[in-house]
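This part of the workshop introduces the protein records we will be handling. To make this concrete, we reproduce a full record directly below.
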Amino acid sequence: MPEDSIEKLLNILESVGEGIYCIDLAGNCTYCNSRCLELLGFDSEQELLGQNMHQLIHHHHRDGSIAKVEDHRIYQSYSNGENTHVQEEVFFRKDGQRFDAEYRSQPIREGGQIVGAVVTFNDITLRRSETNHRLHLSRLVESS
């Protein structure tokens, strides 16, 4: 790919409002955009590049139980070649604080072979809170 095309692609990825990271077959980060860093509380891409993303941000379930790599749909992207969409999952920030995330994961292919996955995600904590609040208000109205 010509250098100007790569630069254009990187500019596009930086302008997206979602966090984006790529992982290799071992689950190690090979790319992250600035929104990913912001959402996860990291200061620079050097803190993420080469790190295992499952161990950093996806290590436990909502109930506190340990999450195995194989339990997550991201793993299915690069192990089975599946596109996945998870509407509600828990991710963890650098400081250990958890947040509700919605994500999509797709396999990355080179020469017909799967070499990793790209994950796009958003913090949906506020949206989830607003939905719960509306549900609560609806129940109050119904009961009155």
User: Anything to note?
Assistant: The two ends are 64 Å apart (CA to CA). Residues 125-143 form the longest helix (19 residues). Confidence is low (pLDDT under 50) at residues 128-138.
